[in-house]
C-alpha cells in the first residue's frame, strides 16, 4: 500500500504526542504527591488536550512586539468557511479583531476563514478536510534524480543553478493554473545524457532561457514522462478501496481530481 506524504506527517505527529505522554506519565508516576493525577492521566485525554490546543492556537504579539502562541476565548469556537481573511491584529489596541465575512442574522452561526491551506494541511493542523471545493488545494509532485545516474554530479550542478534539489517537491500549478515550469526543467535535465548536460553547463543560461530554448512545454519526451508519472499516481490512489474514513476519503478524492486535471491539460495540444 502506498504511503502518502501527508499520512506520514500525521503519523509523525501522533508519534510525538505518544512520546510526550510516555515521558510525562513516567514523570508523574515518580511523584508520590501526584499519584492521584497519574492514575487519571490517560493517553486518550492527553491526546485530546494536545489536539485542542494545537488546532486552536493563534499568533499574537506580546508587550515586546514578539510573536507568541496563544489561545483566544470565543474565537476558537468559530468554525471554518471559505472566504476572505477576516482576522486582524490591531497593533495600537494590542488585540485581535475578527470581522464577519457577511451579514449575520440572529441565531445564525458565525464562521471564519482559517486561511489559505491545502486539504492535507487542514487535516494535519485543523483536524478536518473541508467538504467544499478548496481553491487553495494543490498537489506536491515528488521527483528525484537517482544517484546511480552516470551524469548525477553534472545534473546536480545544473539543477542547483536553477535552485532545484536532486530530490524535490513541486507544486503542479502556478498562477492562472499554468504548469510549474520547474517540473519541466527537472524532467528535461533528468532525461539528458552526459554530453547534453555538459554542453548546457558550459552555457550560462538563465532559467527562462533554458525553458525557452528547449521549448519544454512542447517537448514530447518531457510531456510523455510527466503523463506516465501522473497516470501511475492516479492508479496508486485506488479510489475503489476507500477506507470509509470521511476525511481521508475527501483527501484522496481531491488529490485524484488535481491529478486528473493535470493529465487533461497535458493531453491538450
Automatic annotation (TrEMBL):
One GO process term, biological-process aspect: methylation
Catalytic activity: L-histidyl-[protein] + S-adenosyl-L-methionine = N(tele)-methyl-L-histidyl-[protein] + S-adenosyl-L-homocysteine + H(+)
EC identifiers of the protein: 2.1.1.85
UniProt cross-references to SUPFAM superfamilies, sorted A to Z: SET domain
GO molecular function: protein-L-histidine N-tele-methyltransferase activity; protein-lysine N-methyltransferase activity
Pfam families: Rubis-subs-bind
InterPro entries, per the entry: Rubisco_LSMT_subst-bd, Rubisco_LSMT_subst-bd_sf, SET_dom_sf, SETD3, SETD3_SETD6_MTase
Keywords from the UniProt entry: Methyltransferase, S-adenosyl-L-methionine, Transferase
Segments forming domain Rubisco LSMT substrate-binding: 146-237
Enzyme class, UniProt record, top EC level: transferase
Family: Belongs to the class V-like SAM-binding methyltransferase superfamily. SETD3 actin-histidine methyltransferase family.
Annotated protein name in UniProt: protein-histidine N-methyltransferase
Native organism: Adineta steineri
Amino acid at each position: 500500500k502506498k504511503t502518502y506524504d501527508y499520512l506520514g506527517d500525521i503519523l509523525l505527529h501522533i508519534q510525538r504526542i505518544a512520546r510526550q505522554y510516555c515521558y510525562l506519565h513516567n514523570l508523574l508516576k515518580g511523584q508520590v504527591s501526584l499519584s492521584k493525577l497519574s492514575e487519571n492521566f490517560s493517553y486518550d485525554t492527553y491526546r485530546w488536550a494536545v489536539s485542542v490546543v494545537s488546532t486552536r492556537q493563534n499568533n499574537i504579539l506580546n508587550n515586546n512586539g514578539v510573536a507568541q502562541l496563544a489561545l483566544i476565548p470565543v474565537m476558537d469556537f468559530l468554525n471554518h468557511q471559505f472566504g476572505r481573511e477576516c482576522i486582524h491584529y490591531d497593533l495600537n489596541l494590542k488585540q485581535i479583531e475578527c470581522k464577519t465575512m457577511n451579514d449575520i442574522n440572529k441565531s445564525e452561526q458565525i464562521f471564519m476563514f482559517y486561511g489559505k491551506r491545502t486539504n492535507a494541511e487542514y487535516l494535519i493542523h485543523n483536524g478536518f478536510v473541508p467538504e467544499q471545493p478548496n481553491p487553495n488545494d494543490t498537489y506536491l509532485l515528488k521527483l528525484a534524480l537517482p544517484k546511480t545516474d552516470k551524469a548525477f554530479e553534472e545534473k546536480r550542478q545544473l539543477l542547483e543553478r536553477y535552485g532545484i534539489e536532486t530530490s524535490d517537491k513541486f507544486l503542479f500549478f502556478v498562477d492562472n493554473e499554468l504548469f510549474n515550469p520547474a517540473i519541466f526543467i527537472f524532467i528535461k535535465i533528468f532525461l539528458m545524457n552526459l554530453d547534453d548536460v555538459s554542453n548546457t553547463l558550459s552555457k550560462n543560461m538563465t532559467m527562462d532561457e533554458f525553458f525557452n530554448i528547449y521549448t519544454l512545454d512542447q517537448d514530447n519526451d518531457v510531456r510523455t514522462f510527466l503523463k506516465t508519472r501522473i497516470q501511475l499516481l492516479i492508479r496508486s490512489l485506488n479510489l475503489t478501496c476507500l477506507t470509509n474514513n470521511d476525511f481521508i476519503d475527501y483527501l484522496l478524492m481531491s488529490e485524484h481530481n488535481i491529478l486528473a486535471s493535470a493529465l487533461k491539460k497535458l493531453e491538450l495540444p
